[in-house]
């Protein structure tokens, strides 16, 4: 889909259709996770904490608040 992505006149639904077709074709590697990762997210990284978050989600919130140097915690949810 490189040509379509470079062309501002391309329709996003046509691009999405081609990507979906490739994902379902069986041509993408599935060795490590059992499914193709193209266009996907790895849903769980690291260990689960007592509050139900993964450690990776917690680190996202901790780093955000560290960078922003806030006096009160800004909650960051790892799910959208």
TrEMBL record:
Residue span, Semialdehyde dehydrogenase dimerisation domain: 14-80
Pfam families, alphabetized: Semialdhyde_dhC (PF02774)
Coiled coil: none
UniProt record, GO biological process: amino acid biosynthetic process
One MF term in the entry's GO annotations: protein dimerization activity
Similarity comment text for this entry: Belongs to the aspartate-semialdehyde dehydrogenase family.
Protein name, per record: Asd/ArgC dimerization domain-containing protein
Native species: Klebsiella aerogenes
């Amino acid at each position: 889909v490189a040509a379509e992505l470079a062309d501002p006149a391309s329709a996003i639904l046509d691009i999405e259709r081609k990507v979906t077709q490739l994902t379902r074709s069986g041509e993408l590697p599935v060795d490590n996770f059992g499914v193709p990762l193209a266009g996907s997210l790895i849903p769980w990284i690291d260990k689960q904490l007592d509050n139900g978050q993964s450690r990776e989600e917690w680190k996202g919130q901790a780093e955000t608040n560290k960078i922003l140097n806030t006096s009160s915690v800004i909650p960051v949810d790892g799910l959208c």
